[in-house]
Amino acid sequence: MAMHIQLYDTTLRDGSQGEGVNFSVQDKLLITKMLDDLGFDFIEGGFAGSNEKDTEYFSRVQELDLKHAQICAFGMTRRRGVGPEEDAGLQAMLSTGTTCCTVVGKTWDLHVTEVLRVDLEENVAMIRDSVGFLKSQGRRVLYDAEHFFDGYKANPEYALETVLAAQDAGAEIIVCCDTNGGTLPDELAEIVTNVQKSVSIPLGIHCHNDCDVAVANSLRAVDAGAVQVQGTINGIGERCGNADLVSVAANLAIKKGQDVLQGGEGVKHLTELSRYVYELSNMNFRSNQPFVGRSAFAHKGGMHVHAVNRLASSYEHIDPELVGNERRVLVSELSGRSNIVAKTTKFRIDHDQELMKKILDRVVELENEGWQFEASEASFDLLVKKIAGTYEPKFRQIHYRVSVETAGQKEPLTEATVKLQIDGDGPIRHEVAEGDGPVNALDNALRKALIPTYGNLAGMHLVDYKVRVINSSEGTAARVRVVIESADEHDVWSTVGVSENVIEASWLALVDAIEFKLYKDEGEVGAPLEEAAASPE
Amino acid sequence: MAMHIQLYDTTLRDGSQGEGVNFSVQDKLLITKMLDDLGFDFIEGGFAGSNEKDTEYFSRVQELDLKHAQICAFGMTRRRGVGPEEDAGLQAMLSTGTTCCTVVGKTWDLHVTEVLRVDLEENVAMIRDSVGFLKSQGRRVLYDAEHFFDGYKANPEYALETVLAAQDAGAEIIVCCDTNGGTLPDELAEIVTNVQKSVSIPLGIHCHNDCDVAVANSLRAVDAGAVQVQGTINGIGERCGNADLVSVAANLAIKKGQDVLQGGEGVKHLTELSRYVYELSNMNFRSNQPFVGRSAFAHKGGMHVHAVNRLASSYEHIDPELVGNERRVLVSELSGRSNIVAKTTKFRIDHDQELMKKILDRVVELENEGWQFEASEASFDLLVKKIAGTYEPKFRQIHYRVSVETAGQKEPLTEATVKLQIDGDGPIRHEVAEGDGPVNALDNALRKALIPTYGNLAGMHLVDYKVRVINSSEGTAARVRVVIESADEHDVWSTVGVSENVIEASWLALVDAIEFKLYKDEGEVGAPLEEAAASPE
């Protein structure tokens, strides 16, 4: 019978320790929403009290209407020689208002005496007091045993003493952490099996990928009896990263027949989830990522393509649709082929074969040029309108010009001019504006030209702006993709532009953002990004 | 006692099936030389007779004076109904002139009947005839059993019959291939153990990473008795790639105490090998790659850094020098003074309290303005020089100007001018250049102005370019951070620029990139990461 294995996501805390990862509060809330939609059991939102961003997150996450996930606040055991009620860290955890607190404590005697520099008994007291205090305040407490495997190998009696202290003080689970990522599967399984004999509450597992076996270790721990796997989306995290929960979830559900992700539909959306997190963290997709990468079911060798055409299973270990991915043969770059119909159902257009094929062909073509629509639904919606023949541009560019000029070390002067024709054969407007940068100047000039006709544009503003080099092998001469997030009082939507020129790419994304706003206010395009991207139907 | 585990590299054949991988003959020869230097046992050079490039490779590789490696020609069993001596594929293998031939044959009955469409007996005859023929021509024959695990699960008797045919015809090893990458470690180990009871020659293992467990599978197979591991450098290969021999070698040698790589010194050069192959295959480094990635021994959290300084093993599973990598301390708001001290030890500057405090204060101040040095070590190094008073600018900006101009839907015209004074009171240069975008145009103009004085800049190029909005609440008027990655023939370094203006931020990062290159070539800034990492003491 399928057993439910809990998935505990720490993308927002341990994942954000990864080099170059930097989520805004808005990013963190969007990821939380999507993880919850997909059925994750626990979401570790941040390190309580460590910075203002996490404090704001914990405050705003309470406004989300979550269906499945428990939000966890992460923190350390109390400092030495301080009562738990006076410990700033524990107070910070309490003040997050989350139902669950995840406390990390030391397991490895060497760490206690050499790094923490407290005596072994005080460390045990710190664990007991911290877990007990949070419990006494009505919180559910999960205990992360740091360096569990190294500690157990060095001094098994002491390692056990620390986790039993957490258990006896009221923790609901002991999570065995391979903090340094140095443990191989056999050793790890043996230790998990042994520890279970002494601990009466369930065990969880938290692996890092320093030996390139974090996923295998997580699966092995589940085989040995662990009921919770901690990890991050796409395996982001410090050093070599954490166990990739995408691979863990897919393996557990599809290969091991276990029940993961509440609601039963989450596994089919793993590809979408993976790409959404890459997009929000401004990281490049790993095209060869297991299960969800663009190349995961791509066939290049002629022999393979031939065989796949004869018999899909001949070179595919699973049906790619099980994880929301798709087979690619030859040039098709499209990730969400099966989603095209689903994504266009909100339009008042005929879903005839021919139109679907036209949309698909165009998307494939654009994706080959570096466009991506996963996180830019507004541009996708406009593209559908264009192909369906229901799109009429609200304005036409005659030309634009941007210049950035500086003298010495002063801030540069930036100026943009735009010349537009409004609404097919309407008036021509020629305007100039300054800005803090070229995109801001262009945006200002565009507004100056358009607001006399479209007053509702005054209620729209840009929220985020991201640039990514697509083919980086040629340095700055490579193609860039710009994604712009816009908002008005009701909605948030994202648009995309691609060009060799960052200004032109920004222009394309800006124009889409404005067109989308105008169509949206006329009720002519569907639900924007936040809604659409986060809903797993 | 340490057992020698053979490493069989197929980067040049199976690896080149990876999406976007395309080696020239010269690349293949260079990689062959390095693999041989490091002590790899077998190098699969290509698919015999499949294309002219591989034919040229097999001809030219004979001129190399190899110390350790056997070059293998890869090919399929004979076609049905043809004698082996008349089979073009087998003849192509022979004509490569290699000592070793690797023959791949079908194990899975479904594949034989549905894909190959021959009867089961004919397939066995094809295997027997092909191996026997090559053997009779004086070649060593390795047998790759394709889809071995899927085949064994479907029909163990038939799977065994195919590999016994290869054994009886004179193959020296049976390599069990998990061609679709769908097998998990437990199942794989069980099958390897079972098969060993029926086969009298040694077994090898060839894994793909579709379940994210290729390295774990390879290690498990060795535990179960396999004596040869096939894989690729950095795990490149079709779909999700092959087992990464870098991780396999490091785990076997360091974690399992086995003897890998002839000559005994190869493991210390794995970081160098990994980066060399990335460079030749024109792929970006994977910074979080286990053992050899740039972030593999990087420490960000202040708590971790503090601990690492007290006791290296506290957050490092191995000494990074064992694989030719190095520890890196990332500077970030999470870290604090212990990071600064650790990071500046490579400079020839006094580590007096006052200077450390000045650096820390400045870093905190800049980080509050949106700078980040954790992924921009070169800018950090220049910052330290500036604060320590050992920095003299190589050139001074008098002004720059960039303009982007378009007419209608055409690609815009981009032009940049720069006016610089060289070296304090040197000549003034005023130059103009075009580019694919504003940053490219600026870069081109800068080079035009500087190369007459600093000829070594010609050997430097931009590798990657990233833009991120820092405070996204104000849209395009917010601050942006640009990170530029540059490289020359020896090193890779990253620089950062922050401004409200993306052009100005790019300018700052460009200037740092150039200054770093100039100081580096004078030996005036510390070894950037890659050099230090790749040079094996």
Automatic annotation (TrEMBL), chains A, B:
PROSITE patterns xrefs: AIPM_HOMOCIT_SYNTH_1, PYR_CT
Alphabetical UniProt keywords: Acyltransferase, Amino-acid biosynthesis, Branched-chain amino acid biosynthesis, Isoleucine biosynthesis, Transferase
InterPro entries according to UniProt: 2-isopropylmalate_synth_dimer, AIPM/Hcit_synth_CS, Aldolase_TIM, Citramal_synthase, LeuA/HCS_post-cat, LeuA_allosteric_dom_sf, PYR_CT
GO biological process, one term: isoleucine biosynthetic process
Lineage: superkingdom: Bacteria
Substrates-to-products reaction catalysed: pyruvate + acetyl-CoA + H2O = (3R)-citramalate + CoA + H(+)
This protein's pathway: Amino-acid biosynthesis; L-isoleucine biosynthesis; 2-oxobutanoate from pyruvate: step 1/3
Keyword NAD recorded: no
The protein's enzyme class: transferase
Pfam families: HCS_D2, HMGL-like, LeuA_dimer
Record-annotated Pyruvate carboxyltransferase domain positions: 5-271
Classification via SUPFAM superfamilies: 2-isopropylmalate synthase LeuA, allosteric (dimerisation) domain, Aldolase
GO molecular function, one term: (R)-citramalate synthase activity
EC number: 2.3.3.21
Statement: the UniProt record of this protein carries the keyword Acyltransferase: yes
Family of this protein: Belongs to the alpha-IPM synthase/homocitrate synthase family.
Name of this protein: Citramalate synthase
Gene source species: Maioricimonas rarisocia
Upper taxonomic lineage: Bacteria, Pseudomonadati, Planctomycetota, Planctomycetia, Planctomycetales
